[in-house]
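Readers of this paper often ask what the protein records in our data store actually look like. The remainder of this section carries one protein's record, kept here as part of the documentation.

:::
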Amino acid sequence: MKKVVFTSLILLIALTLVGCSETEDDIVINQEETVPYESYLKDTNPVVTIKVKDYGTMTLQLFPEVAPNSVRNMINLIENNYYEGLIFHRVIQGFMIQGGWGEESGCAIAGEFNSNGFNNPLKHARGVFSMARTMNPNSATSQFFIMHQNSPHLDGEYAGFGAMVSGFDVLDQIATTSTGAQDRPVEDIVITSMSVDTKGISYDAPTCYE
């Protein structure tokens, strides 16, 4: 029987209120309000679409050049419909929204971040997509988080591997919802579907940590 594993970010919350522009569905950046991760956005990157019940849709690009195994892990989980029906179980306004807590995925991956010996230059700016983990740097499985605001204390400590291109209004609505114990939303925020467009590129299964 598969275990239910709860991983959380064991961190002090640093709130840095900064602005960030929202992009259009065709991923055209507003040059007057560029995002910090603009240089990583490419037409060939995989695109993830997250549909959230009663909230709307968020669209993100994955960055294979930044954290390739984290990208392969996410693609594998999405293509196996892992996230459908799961919730954003931890929400902290001004910090991040976290989801993907479900049955154990069966594959823990090595953390692709600087303090774990992997060069990852992606900063945890508003909209960045990153892997959650326990205190063990090689414990990431299925849980992810999306930055609500810039949080530089996470840089080099967690594996950022993508970023939002649209749906910042949905991110803000989720981030400002009422929460209770352990930062869990009072009313469930349900992922109705997650899909990925790999742009015709085939990605191998992730490499599990041994």
